[in-house]
Amino acid sequence: MKKNNLIIAALFFIIPYIISSQTFELKLKNISAGSNLSAVKSANKYYSKTGIPASWYLAAIINPMLVIEDKKVFFGLTKEISAGIFPYGRLAFEYSYIFRSYNTSHLRFSYNYDFILAAGDFVGFIATPGAGYFTDTKNNGWFLQGSVGALLGPGEPLMFNPYLKYRHTFIKEKTKSNIHDISLGVGFAFFL
To answer: What span, in angstroms and rounded, lies between the C-alpha atoms of 116 and 151?
Structure first.
C-alpha cells in the first residue's frame, strides 16, 4: 500500500513538470536566429490562439489534490471561487470530489488574506494564510491552510489565482481522523 501511495504522490508532482518542460523544450526547438515569439507560439501545438498553454485551460476548470485521511492517500479534484476587497482579504467557497467509496464530497468556506510578496503590472506573487469551516455531510470541522501563488490578469474585478496549497482539517468528532491535503491549480478571484 505504501508503494502505491508513493507512486500516486510522485505522479501528482511529476506530470505537471513533464508537461511544462515539454512545452518549454518545444519552444526552444522552434526558436531560430531572427525568429519571434509569435512564430514560436504558432508552431507549438500546446498553445491556443490566445497564447496561453492549453494545459492552463484544464487547470482553470479542475485542480488535482491529494488527501491524506486515516493513514490512507486519496486522489481528488477541487475548484475554488473567492470574492474579496483588496487589501481586506477574500471569502472563498471550495468544492472537492474525492475518488473513494465514502464521503466523496468536501465543502469548505474560508477567509484568506493575501500578502503581496512582489508585484508587477500583470502579476502579483502572494503568500496566503487562511482558515475556515469544513463539512463532508457526515463530518464537520475547521481548517488552517497556507498557499503560495500569484494573482494574474488584466486587473480587477476578475483575476486568476494559480497556487500550491497545503491544508490541515481538524475534525470535531474525536474518533475520526484529521485530514491533510495538498492541491495544485488555478482558482478564480473576484475583487470588488
So the answer is: 9
